[in-house]
Design goal:
The chain is an alpha/beta fold. The model has no long low-confidence stretch (mean pLDDT 92). Helix 10 links the parallel strand 10 (232-236) and strand 11. The protein is globular, with a radius of gyration of 22 Å. The chain has a six-stranded parallel sheet with strand order 5-3-1-6-7-8. The protein contains 15 helices and 14 strands. Helix 3 (102-112) runs antiparallel to helix 4 (116-123), helix 9 crosses helix 13 and helix 12 (290-297) crosses helix 14 (342-357). The chain has two domains: 2-175 and 361-393, Rossmann fold (3-Layer(aba) Sandwich), CATH 3.40.50; 183-357, Rossmann fold.
Length: 394
């Protein structure tokens, strides 16, 4: 098959970008011709993926203009057997919805902003208005054959807001690279990482992964850490400089600054996760959260917010815990505490790894290719009907 992937950033960094790249590599491995229509390209992208760079638009036009340029590129470079969109694009055969409906995210944003007028302005920014227009066009009947929300949470949002046939909206959780994220890294990583952090070898280490500290729930984790004497937190990811500074200040104000380690964005998250004892993901709103599956694949129990789509892959009491109120530090600490016990943690981590293997790339690729084949078959039938209609007109 000749497949086009749509996303403005062709890169190996970022949850969505890694998913697209890994899919492209595996499609190429299977003998398919893969194209990536993008605005920027990382030199490390697999050479078998043919990247077609569009003009990188200025920030205030980025969403609207990339969609328009991508549509023109599809006409110029096509035809393609399947067009698979991952970003804010309006026309494709298959669309992976990894963020949920804009109105639902805006509702969270409006609640979480310190200033209501600032939130109102952000919701009416040119980019937000362009994204909403594209979303409405995308979910107009006939614009997309299949929608693949990354969680049931996102599927429910889509079906509540748009008149789509439910059978065309199919949940497909993200895939995880179970070879890259693996418990086999732990024997070497645990002592080495603890030495790098300057913490005791036996001290419990809680991992936090996220690029938006406030939304992902870092303040709640820092508050919970006060109730977990001896435990340390490893913060992976970055945020705006002011928010990074505020995170460190908050840790100090809560008296846990010496037990919180800000590692920033790292190229080796698999090594750092393998060194931890538990992932804590108390997100206030998240379509999924790839870090949860990566931690499970690394053999860690996970404590996750019910407001995150990744709660759907957690078996409470067996592979981790799901908290209803992620802002409640006491409830969060209570959910974490059982996994500080080495024996319980080891058993939960073993079960978590087993669950993560169900979301590896082999079953993911099979699911994606099955949908691609449905698209190709639909197009074949439509072309046959068009030809028969033309013959009848003669």
């Amino acid at each position: 098959m000749r497949v086009a992937l749509l996303h403005p950033r062709a890169a190996l960094v970022g949850g969505v970008e890694r998913q697209i790249h890994d899919l492209g590599v595996r499609l190429a491995d299977a003998g398919h011709e893969v194209h990536w229509i993008c605005a920027t390209r990382d030199a490390r992208v697999d050479a078998r993926i043919r990247c077609h760079r569009m003009l990188e638009p200025p920030r205030f036009l980025r969403v609207w203009l990339f969609d328009r340029l991508a549509r023109r590129a599809l006409v110029r470079l096509g035809p393609f057997d399947v067009v698979h969109g991952f970003g804010k694009t309006s026309h494709q055969d298959v669309y992976r919805d990894g963020s949920g409906c804009l109105a639902d995210f805006q509702a969270y944003a409006f609640e979480s902003q310190g200033s209501r007028w600032r939130a109102a302005l952000r919701l009416r920014s040119p980019q937000a208005l362009a994204a909403l227009r594209i979303e409405r066009e995308r979910y107009r009947p006939g614009s997309c054959r299949f929608v693949l929300p990354i969680s049931a949470l996102v599927r429910e949002q889509i079906l509540c807001r748009y008149d789509l046939a439910p059978e065309r909206v199919r949940v497909l959780h993200p895939a995880v690279d179970t070879a890259r994220f693996s418990p086999r890294l732990a024997p070497a990583a645990r002592p080495a990482v603890r030495a790098e952090l300057g913490m005791a070898a036996a001290a419990p280490l809680l991992a936090f992964v996220g690029s938006d500290f406030r939304r992902k729930g870092l303040p709640a984790l820092l508050a919970a850490l006060r109730l977990l004497p001896g435990a340390h937190a490893l913060v992976l990811g970055g945020d705006r400089p002011a928010r990074m500074r505020r995170g460190r200040e908050l840790a100090g104000e809560l008296g846990v600054g010496d037990r919180v380690h800000f590692a920033g964005v790292r190229p080796d998250p698999e090594r750092l996760l393998a060194a931890a004892d538990c992932l804590v993901f108390p997100s206030r709103f998240d379509a999924f959260g790839n870090a949860v599956l990566e931690a499970m694949a690394s053999g860690l129990p996970v404590v996750v917010s019910r407001r995150a789509g990744s709660a759907e892959v957690v078996i409470p009491g067996r592979t981790g815990a799901v908290v209803d109120a992620p802002e409640d530090a006491a409830a969060l600490a209570t959910a974490i505490r059982p996994f500080l016990d080495p024996a319980l943690r080891a058993e939960a981590g073993r079960l978590a790894r087993r669950e993560a293997e169900k979301h590896g790339w082999e079953p993911q690729l099979e699911s994606v290719l099955a949908i691609y084949r449905e698209v190709v078959e639909q197009k074949r039938r439509e072309a046959a009907l068009t030809r028969s209609g033309s013959d009848g007109d003669r």
